[in-house]
Design goal:
The protein is about 55% helix and about 10% strand. It has 10 helices and 7 strands. The chain has a 7-stranded parallel beta sheet, with helices on both faces. It starts with a helix and ends in a 13-residue tail after the last helix.
Length: about 300
């Protein structure tokens, strides 16, 4: 009996591993079929997350429109995608110069995309500008720039492409937001305000366009960290704020977020919170025990952070 159990354990583990492998392969192939031949617009495609989204959707056979405010970096991304792609299974991406903080040009970009492809199936609003510093030291001009890039730019582009989706009764809009659209962190007033505004807009829009079979999805990670930055193993200060702040700022890797965006498109999810347990718990504490939440984050005000600096 004991020998049989010992022999069965490796077989059981092997069977579970096989099932997981099959599930992953089926999910990957399903993802490709969902976006194949679809026109997918990705804003700020030259960011870390934008590049990973471009890679995932390009591999899936999407007709990509890659938007960014630097032509050289767009061209570098284009070359990287083409160099590893199978020409028989992928399409040549279209590059478009777009700075969402310059809202006067957004309508023209939307027209250019529609004139080129005739429609947009999936819009991924990814662009974001960050700022950190005490509220009284952030200029009103910088506040406006943050709102233009993180709120007005995405909604202008969305409004320009939405009528076509409604008339065809199909389409999906994905907002890559931030967990700070659900709670506020000290020294990030302008950024958090823009993310709250964007989340509110797309939550309302979701209900408005449901009858037209247009899906609105929001993906809210913590900070999206760079490729080479990982949490250090040093001694942390004995502070609730420090623990919370470090957990929040280390965030998620661009590859993980891009794969979640693809899953969101495939499964037509309405809302995803991509964060480790500490920030997720903070969202619930903010709702259920607001005074406790305010007391914890207020501890951070005593910590002197750096002067305002654009990210």
């Amino acid at each position: 009996m004991g020998v049989t159990a010992v022999l069965m354990l490796p077989l059981l583990l092997l069977g579970i591993s096989g099932l997981l492998f099959i599930y992953q392969e089926v999910s990957r192939l399903w993802s490709k079929s969902v976006v194949q031949n679809k026109v997918v617009v990705i804003t700020d495609a030259i960011s870390g997350l934008g590049k990973e989204c471009a890679r995932v959707f390009h591999t899936g056979g999407a007709r990509l429109v890659l938007c960014g405010k630097n032509w050289e970096r767009l061209q570098s991304l284009y070359d990287a995608l083409i160099s590893v792609a199978d020409p028989s299974k992928t399409f040549t991406p279209k590059l478009v110069l777009l700075d969402l903080s310059d809202i006067s040009c957004v309508q023209d970009v939307a027209k250019e995309v529609l004139d080129c492809y005739g429609c947009v199936d999936i819009l991924i609003n990814n662009a974001s500008v960050k700022v950190k510093g005490p509220a009284h030291k952030i200029s009103l001009e910088l506040d406006k720039k943050i709102m233009d890039a993180n709120y007005f730019g995405p909604i202008i582009l969305t409004k320009a492409l939405l009528p076509d989706m409604i008339s065809r009764r199909t389409g999906q809009i994905v907002l890559v937001n931030n967990i700070q659209g659900k709670l506020g962190i000290p020294f990030r007033t302008a950024y958090a305000a823009s993310k709250h505004a964007a989340l509110g807009f797309f939550d309302c829009l979701r209900a408005e366009v449901e009858e037209y079979d247009v899906v609105v999805s929001t993906v809210s990670p913590t900070f999206i960290r760079s490729y080479h930055v990982d949490p250090g193993q040093g001694n942390w200060e004995a502070s609730i704020w420090k623990f919370f702040f470090r957990k929040l700022t280390y965030g998620t890797h661009p590859v993980d977020v891009a794969e979640e965006v693809m899953r969101t498109v495939r499964r037509k999810k309405q809302e995803v919170c991509l964060a480790n347990p500490i920030p997720k718990a903070a969202v619930y504490i903010r709702t259920l025990f607001p005074e406790l939440f305010f007391a914890v984050v207020a501890c951070g005000v005593k910590e002197k952070l750096s002067v305002p600096e654009e990210g």
